Automatic annotation (TrEMBL):
PROSITE patterns: AROMATIC_AA_PERMEASE_1. Keywords: Amino-acid transport, Cell inner membrane, Cell membrane, Membrane, Transmembrane, Transmembrane helix, Transport. It comes from Vibrio navarrensis. InterPro entries: Amino_acid_transport_2 (IPR018227), Trp/try_permease_CS (IPR013061), Trp_tyr_transpt (IPR013059). One of its GO terms (biological process) is amino acid transmembrane transport. It is found in: Cell inner membrane. One of its GO terms (cellular component) is plasma membrane. It comes from the Bacteria. The chain crosses the membrane at residues 7-28, 34-56, 82-102, 122-143, 155-174, 186-208, 220-241, 274-296, 308-327, 333-353, 374-396. It is a multi-pass membrane protein. One of its GO terms (molecular function) is aromatic amino acid transmembrane transporter activity. NCBIfam families: araaP. This is Aromatic amino acid permease. Belongs to the amino acid/polyamine transporter 2 family. Mtr/TnaB/TyrP permease subfamily.
């Protein structure tokens, strides 16, 4: 029974990590080449695995049912809970904005392909959002049923895409070096966001009854699966399309079209497009459901007559507004999501562990590395936030 739960928890972490952020990896890595992107991915995987283990250490201080907000309030006080809540809200909205921006463009393409009708981008984005909003508003059970089908199809499509692209990989393309040094730093926030799974840790802790040995296995293997898949994905994208062509087609739709043109298979473009559609949909459903429930609970506390429709309006209107105003904002929104994820996955775990270690230095489970590792981890978090801020002010080159 224990091994079955560990296996299930491993898949939950892997499934949470692998999403639409995977589609952004080739776009974010276009100007830095495969070798540099590989080093960044491995480093960020190690960082995120480390901070996830810090969360396991922190969970020893509370009941296994404790949420991140509960832990933040218990250890850091009301201000800690407020910071956790704000960061979670910011992360949800930024991710939803990214998925609507990317999904709206894909939806317009699919309507044209299937029905031969040219649809205005703003209308397509709105219809796509309404479709997902309807599913989420109906209820979690509906989201679960739809997501199971979509996730299965996504895995099949991903395997097929990797299979068809692999024979076309060029070693020369993989050996391409950074075109502009600033792109190396600029790529870090987007790649970092692709390894975010920390929101699922409280549920995993509860499922495994807080057993640290089981949690360590689930976290390490669950995060390693996405890393391996990402590496293969980078090989078959960065190794198939020239660096200059990737930079010239920095939008998601441009990447899909360029892959199809390069390997001279139009059906491959459709296959990659289907995979992209499914990745966006499954990620959007999961994130928007989390935001919907989060806001729904808040509205119930403040207004007894509030209902699911009001929660849906509050959930989907702000990110839809961003996507309509900035339809090419898929990469940009993921970059801003990195700021909130840095707070949730780096700053809060480091701050909480630092405090509980001082209060109880003889804890049963303690992540290796000591104070030095906490300082280094916090320093990387500052680098990620600073990189995104510099991109926003035009100091570093913008991606996508």
């Amino acid at each position: 029974m224990r091994s079955s739960k560990i296996f299930g928890s491993t898949l939950i972490i892997a499934g949470t990590t692998i999403g639409a952020g995977m589609l952004a990896l080739p776009l974010a890595s276009a100007g830095i080449g495969f070798s540099i992107s590989l080093m960044i991915m491995v480093s960020l995987w190690a960082l995120m695995s480390f901070t996830a283990l810090l969360m396991v250490e922190v969970h020893q201080e509370a009941h296994s049912n404790a949420t991140l907000h509960t832990l933040a309030k218990q250890i850091l006080g009301p201000k800690g809970k407020l910071l956790a809540s704000f960061s979670m809200l910011f992360l949800f909205y930024a991710l939803c904005a990214a998925y609507i921006a990317g999904g709206g463009a894909q939806f317009a393409t699919r309507v044209t392909q299937w029905f031969g009708v040219q649809v205005d981008g703003a209308l397509a984005t709105t219809l796509f959002t309404l479709l997902v909003a309807t599913i989420v508003t109906i209820g979690t059970s509906t989201v679960d049923k739809v997501n199971r089908v979509l996730f299965t199809l996504k895995i099949v499509a991903m395997i097929a895409v990797l299979f068809f692209l692999a024979p076309n990989v060029s070693q020369a393309y993989l050996l391409s070096m950074p075109i502009e040094q600033g792109l190396v730093v600029a790529s870090i926030p987007v790649i970092f966001t692709s390894f975010g799974f920390h929101g699922s840790i409280p549920a995993i802790v509860r499922y495994l009854d807080g057993d640290t040995g089981s949690l360590r296995k689930a976290i390490l293997f669950g995060s390693l699966i996405p890393l391996v898949i990402y590496i293969f994905w980078q090989i078959v994208t960065l190794g198939v399309v020239k660096q200059d062509d990737l930079l010239a087609n920095s939008a998601l739709s441009g990447l899909i079209a360029q892959l199809a043109i390069t390997v001279h298979q139009s059906q491959l473009g459709t296959l990659v497009g289907v995979f992209a559609d499914l990745a966006l949909l499954t990620s959007f459903l999961g994130v928007s459901l989390g935001l919907f429930e989060f806001l729904g609970d808040t509205l119930k506390k403040q207004q007894e007559n509030s209902n699911r429709v009001i929660a849906a309006v509050v959930t989907f209107t702000p990110p839809l507004g961003f996507a309509l105003f900035y339809p090419q904002g898929f990469i940009t929104a993921l970059g801003y999501a990195a700021i909130a994820l840095t707070v949730l996955a780096i700053f809060l775990p480091v701050a909480m562990v630092n405090k509980v270690r001082k209060q109880n230095p003889q804890r049963a489970y303690r992540v290796a590395g000591g104070q030095v590792s906490l300082l280094l981890t916090g320093g990387v978090g500052v680098l990620i936030v600073a990189a995104q801020i510099l991109i926003s002010f035009g100091v570093l080159p913008s991606l996508g």
